[in-house]
Design a protein that fits this description.
alpha/beta, eight-stranded mixed β-sheet, 11 helices, globular
């Protein structure tokens, strides 16, 4: 269908770093990017859907936000994107609200530690701390932790599926995973990097993100950073995997979906046409974002309401 005009609209909303900052201290550039994302959150994501429960939670020392429309709901643990270096509970607030409102599930959004201040495996450890907390304290939170899914977008998708594999290996498998244009390949080898690198994300920025998150190159070859390095993907949770047509992460997401399917994992892979990386949280900009959020919600309802 070609590039949707809403992509160009979305790219004009957020402040871009001035040229002199691009050549300056990388920490100054990161501070700029973090602030730019936060300050355009309202314009990109729209108004907040009211819910009966919206509460900040200390999950074993990890800051989280709980969204729920009813008591005793299944739980969807959500991990925001942002290249492991930016993004926050606030930047996915509207998306999490919509999913909670339309799925009947509680959503627990995780404020995991960011690089470069906290490199691998800090973020993964935070996710595992939160999963343990939910299982132990679910009754006090008013949720049903016996029905537990995980998901995330981009860097959050990578953290989600690595945590899901580790939960499988620990004998505490999760019931479902939702991966929205997940970052899968630290080598950035896919052809999509060459085909669609001009729509807000490119090979250089992804390489920098991977290197900032996992500065030790040897870590980038292991399954806790590179999900496709896992020797066995059988027994992973049933999966909804969303990719975007004009996203450099498109092909590695598709490759991961194929690998899960080859391992016998039930997978639905949906490619949203005409849109780029990051579209799913931008509910005020993309028609496709609202469709994706509702797609996630109805899938979780079917997967966890049993």
């Amino acid at each position: 269908m070609g590039l949707h005009p809403q992509v160009e609209q979305s790219l004009r909303i957020r402040r871009r770093p001035p040229a002199d900052l691009l050549d300056a201290d990388p920490h100054a550039l990161l501070r700029f990017v973090r602030l730019a994302m936060e300050e355009t959150n309202e314009a990109e994501c729209g108004p907040a859907v009211p819910l009966p429960v919206v509460a900040d939670v200390d999950a074993g020392g990890v800051p989280c936000r709980l969204y729920a429309a009813r008591h005793g709901a299944p739980v969807f643990v959500y991990l925001h994107g942002g290249g492991w270096t930016y993004g926050s509970v606030e930047t996915v607030d509207r998306l999490c609200r919509r999913i909670a409102d339309r799925s009947g599930c509680a959503v627990l959004s995780v404020g995991y530690r960011l690089a470069p201040e906290h490199v691998f495996p800090a973020a993964l450890r935070d996710v595992e701390t939160v999963l343990g907390f939910v299982r132990a304290e679910g009754a006090d939170l008013g949720v049903d932790a016996s029905r537990l899914a995980i998901g995330g977008d981009s860097a959050g998708g990578q953290l989600a599926t690595v945590a899901a594999r580790r939960q499988r290996d620990a004998g505490t498998p999760l019931d479902y995973q939702v991966l929205v244009y997940p970052a899968i390949d630290p080598m950035t080898a896919a052809e999509s990097y060459d085909e669609v690198g001009g729509y807000g994300l490119d090979r250089a920025s992804m390489r920098l993100a991977w290197e900032t998150f996992a500065p030790d190159p040897t870590d980038r070859y292991g399954p806790d950073v590179a999900p496709l390095a896992a020797p066995d993907l059988s027994g992973m949770p049933p999966t909804l995997l969303i990719t975007a047509e004009f996203d450099v992460l498109r092909d590695e997401g598709a490759e991961y979906a194929d690998a899960l399917l080859a391992a016998g994992v039930p997978v639905v892979h949906v490619r949203y046409a005409g849109v780029n990386h990051g579209f799913a949280r931008k509910l005020a900009v993309f028609d496709a974002a609202r469709c994706a959020a509702d797609h996630i919600a109805v899938t979780l309802r079917a997967a966890l309401t049993f």
